Amino acid sequence: PDGCALSNDGGPGSAPLSPGPESCPVCVSPAGGSLTKLAYYSTVQHKVAKVRSFDHSGKDTERDHEPPYEISVQEEITARLHFIKFENTYIEACLDFIKDHLVNTETKVIQATGGGAYKFKDLIEEKLRLKVDKEDVMTCLIKGCNFVLKNIPHEAFVYQKDSDPEFRFQTNHPHIFPYLLVNIGSGVSIVKVETEDRFEWVGGSSIGGGTFWGLGALLTKTKKFDELLHLASRGQHSNVDMLVRDVYGGAHQTLGLSGNLIASSFGKSATADQEFSKEDMAKSLLHMISNDIGQLACLHARLHSLDRVYFGGFFIRGHPVTMRTITYSINFFSKGEVQALFLRHEGYLGAIGAFLKGAEQDNPNQYSWGENYACSSGLMSASPELGPAQRARSGTFDLLEMDRLERPLVNLPLLLDPPSYVPDTVDLTDDALARKYWLTCFEEALDGVVKRAVASQPDSVDAAERAEKFRQKYWNKLQTLRQQPFAYGTLTVRSLLDTREHCLNEFNFPDPYSKVKQRENGVALRCFPGVVRSLDALGWEDRQLALVKGLLAGNVFDWGAKAVSDVLESDPYFGFEEAKRKLQGTDGQVTWGLGPPHKCALIFADNSGIDIILGVFPFVRELLLRGTEVILACNSGPALNDVTHSESLIVAERIAGMDPVVHSALREERLLLVQTGSSSPCLDLSRLDKGLAALVRERGADLVVIEGMGRAVHTNYHAALRCESLKLAVIKNTWLAERLGGRLFSVIFKYEVPAE
Amino acid sequence: MRRLGPFHPRVHWAAPPSLSSGLHRLLFLRGTRIPSSTTLSPPRHDSLSLDGGTVNPPRVREPTGREAFGPSPASSDWLPARWRNGRGGRPRARLCSGWTAAEEFSRARTLSPHGGPSLVRGLTSGWRPRVLRKRYLRGPPAPIVFPWFGLDIGGTLVKLVYFEPKDITAEEEEEEVESLKSIRKYLTSNVAYGSTGIRDVHLELKDLTLCGRKGNLHFIRFPTHDMPAFIQMGRDKNFSSLHTVFCATGGGAYKFEQDFLTIGDLQLCKLDELDCLIKGILYIDSVGFNGRSQCYYFENPADSEKCQKLPFDLKNPYPLLLVNIGSGVSILAVYSKDNYKRVTGTSLGGGTFFGLCCLLTGCTTFEEALEMASRGDSTKVDKLVRDIYGGDYERFGLPGWAVASSFGNMMSKEKREAVSKEDLARATLITITNNIGSIARMCALNENINQVVFVGNFLRINTIAMRLLAYALDYWSKGQLKALFSEHEGYFGAVGALLELLKIP
């Protein structure tokens, strides 16, 4: 990165971030005449908890009271993309803001796209003393579109008028190409996108948003686009349009046809002696334009044999009225063969693309990015009661922030059908009852999270203050989600958990559980030899059952779960055996034994401490003894008390010191510890670390074990894999247990063999 | 639509003066009422001609050609296409007094190589061979009684074609009833009827032979909102006594069927409008235009100096994309005389142009709207590519003169205040025309057809639109597509209806 800085404190709605060295390929991309989108790239300094093994050659590690490893908090710099949009009237203020924060300018060029690139070129050059590099609008738009489709889960959605909610989000498609992008600005451009770099303008139409606006202004004397839409939403087009029933009389009924189809738009206005209402004319105009665009889009989709058509441009931009009419038109003309898709971050495409183009030397495309829920504004409500005034206000400043992930993310190669894979078990946007429960649950847990966050940083003077800010931020997010569950795509338990993690990170609470995990790991490590000894004493059949019970019992130790954190809080020595007893009805219900040895098992571990050490490792050891290789996948970054990859390395090292089986397996690379690429208590098998995926392929993994409520119940409960899989968890939530027809501490044990 | 009873306040449809009601009784005795089209009665052997009691054999169309891509959305004339293409559900039997079972049989055979449609088979299997035998034994069909009309009742205009026999023998003349004579005189001696009916004299086809009769074909139009007055005239003057069959097509054939029956005592024979359209075009093209070519195209359409209207010989008509621009637009792909399908349609048609012009300029007639358009400058209203990019948009190969956003300049208050009504009329015309051209081009591409015939009354006296269509098609297809036009642009449906009456294949 070139060393110019663009600090973002004081930026509209931005979160407090430590200023760090930042780079700023900036682009200003006003389009559609009213909003300017600004994209910039910054580096964000975060505190990160690091674990480091003590020199374990010494004997002091054997002492009971010593922690097994040391924790240090370090500053880490991560890259973040910021996209802001604001009304054009603020352009000068915005440029001043950029100028004030541009220090040590090495960036000499600013990327700009859209009509505004021409309009504001002089202003930008004069204010910032930067050369404006005008980027091609469509190129930017498509680059941006590819970027969001690849990097943001639930980016695309279909709009369904009468369902609740109106948005149906699409799961990320691993192959986004080819698709058709229909950009409805003042005119319409239809672009066929075949690969990252190959796209073609296949057609267009001059009848677009400008026609609606311009002709609408002439017909209704209403000047603003939003007001025109508002008029249209109240009109009756049948007063202006000549319908089929007007031409055919009543006969359309006997023919079994809809008389409501428009035979001739504005066909009834061909008379001098009648007045038409503004609302009716606006509605008729809206139908005329939407139908026409839908028809052209379908003709092009058919010509190029494409079924995915994304719509964007200011005509669409979150307006329910136009999304509805376009969707209707597409369904009508394609008979359902083509789906009209819309994008959550549609308004940012040009800015994102211009940015990516300017940053090509850094090539952001080689990384994976994740939407930062903490900093991004959600999708605006499409509810009809939101008038244009409100819409304008909420549209004044809008943010999208994307964190650069350290490594690229890909599909787990073992997914049976990647396109149809949906990580989440329950769609809370759909399930109002569950949504209510979980939102309340997260609200109630907030106090505890705040308390723990403060406690995790006893030496920090501002911990309480930051924790309070965190509380406010997350509380507000929860309230937004209560009102607009679709604000960040499909609402799920996972997104609620991830949002909380993002918010904690945002306020420099990188790992509130680090000390708890450290202590629990120490306790568990000391128990490990005893557990292994007692297992080895059992006969084969008993051992299999004991191993599974151990896996499940270990999973009871979950600080993320309310019921358990209560117990652990009051009795830190809540024993492993106690946990086994707590498991509801394990005896007699779990009958299990591993069949012929597998070649390689992939295990997604859950919690640090007892879970990984006394539950997972003995199981791993058994597999190793059977000649099965094991890939143990842990989170890249901290989330709740989940075991992180770096913790797992230390734990494995310590266990290897005690156990020759694990020791030789590590040395011979029959036991491999890898990171998932995620920092979430849940698991998205379509976004996994590229290295993990490569290893799974290379070793020919034929068994997948997914452990824990977050990974095996909230997500992946229905995931279909190409090999044998074992999903197990202990239900540590009363409400969920009841919903699933069980009781607290009931066991989920799902062993699946793929159909031949 | 605003209709105040059967009489439109603005219409004064003058009836033929000599048609008196006194003849009614006499004629009624001779004639037999055509049975209601809704009853499906088994055919009787002796009832297969028009001058006996008439049978209504089932008429079924197979889906022809490939499936249409979209149901025509929003065009007035897409309805029959639904049952033609079979997409709207099961094939429909249709009843038409103008058909004989024999013809139905041969038609069904030609239409479906795999045997007739099931409904036809089911209903006709028992008696079809006998019908055929009977028909052949009977010899040539009885002559069809005059007057010969074909009617196409569209959303905006009613098109009427009338065949005036010129070879009437003295004997015939003597037998001819007064009312028939007076109709002939009335229609042929006037060029305007009432305040809104017009005979397009320049389109008259002379010395035509139809069903062995020689005569002239007349082309008359009047607004659809005057239909009640027309029916009322029919009643006043006892059209029903003439014992003629009114073959009608267009949406109005359905809408006004009941009025024809109850007010005019006239049974309409409703005909499929796309069938009629295609029949009409093929027929009219075959007879030419009084020695001239019916079909034409434009050379150098963009250059007003060099632009030339040149005859086109449609000797290889198939495949053909037929774009019928009435109030709405229908687009058909025609593969042979009997094999065609409706590809799509759009609600942005002639009705939209005229409707918007009325709202924007206050004009009252189509002619006035076109006249204003001819004097306007659409570039003041539309935002062109060069207005946005300063010139051509090279990345996408878009020329600077292309319209980027129709009415796009009207987003600005200053520009709204600076345009004239003429500019607005011109922009409306350009917008609608370009859009039709664009959809037609996409359909031609999808159907792999390179000759496109534009017909319909939107093109009447509308050289601007025709030249623009010719130019746009040529430009955007890089010379691959040819826009063709036809002299009788709006009358083909009505001609087709007349042909059905005469059973001319």
From TrEMBL, chain A:
Compartment(s): Cytoplasm
Organism from which the protein derives: Gorilla gorilla gorilla
Record-linked InterPro entries: ARMT-1-like_metal-bd_sf, ARMT1-like_metal-bd, At2g17340_3_helix_bundle, ATPase_NBD, PanK_long, Type_II_PanK
NCBIfam families in the record: panK_eukar
Organism placement in taxonomy: Eukaryota, Metazoa, Chordata, Craniata, Vertebrata
GO biological process: coenzyme A biosynthetic process
UniProt xrefs under SUPFAM superfamilies: Actin-like ATPase domain, AF1104-like
Region listing for Disordered, in residue ranges: 1-22
MF annotations from Gene Ontology: ATP binding; metal ion binding; phosphatase activity
The protein's assembly and partners: Homodimer. Interacts with PKM.
Catalytic activity: (R)-4'-phospho-S-sulfopantetheine + H2O = (R)-S-sulfopantetheine + phosphate; (R)-4'-phosphopantetheine sulfonate + H2O = (R)-pantetheine sulfonate + phosphate; (R)-4'-phosphopantetheine + H2O = (R)-pantetheine + phosphate
Purpose: Phosphatase which shows a preference for 4'-phosphopantetheine and its oxidatively damaged forms (sulfonate or S-sulfonate), providing strong indirect evidence that the phosphatase activity pre-empts damage in the coenzyme A (CoA) pathway. Hydrolyzing excess 4'-phosphopantetheine could constitute a directed overflow mechanism to prevent its oxidation to the S-sulfonate, sulfonate, or other forms. Hydrolyzing 4'-phosphopantetheine sulfonate or S-sulfonate would forestall their conversion to inactive forms of CoA and acyl carrier protein.
Pfam families in alphabetical order: ARMT1-like_dom (PF01937), Fumble (PF03630)
Domain Damage-control phosphatase ARMT1-like metal-binding: 443-742
Record EC number: 3.1.3.-
Regulation: Activity is strongly promoted by Co(2+), Ni(2+), Mg(2+) and Mn(2+). Activity is inhibited by EDTA.
Protein name, entry field: 4'-phosphopantetheine phosphatase
UniProtKB/TrEMBL annotation, chain B:
GO cellular component: cytosol; mitochondrial intermembrane space; nucleus
Pathway: Cofactor biosynthesis; coenzyme A biosynthesis; CoA from (R)-pantothenate: step 1/5
Catalytic activity, EC: 2.7.1.33
GO BP annotation list: aerobic respiration; coenzyme A biosynthetic process; mitochondrion organization; regulation of mitochondrial membrane potential; spermatid development
Alphabetical keyword list: ATP-binding, Coenzyme A biosynthesis, Cytoplasm, Kinase, Nucleotide-binding, Phosphoprotein, Transferase
Region (Disordered): 34-74
Matches recorded under NCBIfam families: panK_eukar
Gene3D superfamilies in alphabetical order: 3.30.420.40, 3.30.420.510
Record's subcellular location: Cytoplasm
GO MF annotation terms: ATP binding; pantothenate kinase activity
Family affiliation: Belongs to the type II pantothenate kinase family.
Name this polypeptide is given: pantothenate kinase
Subunit structure: Homodimer.
Pfam families tied to this protein: Fumble (PF03630)
Substrates-to-products reaction catalysed: (R)-pantothenate + ATP = (R)-4'-phosphopantothenate + ADP + H(+)
Keyword presence, Manganese: no
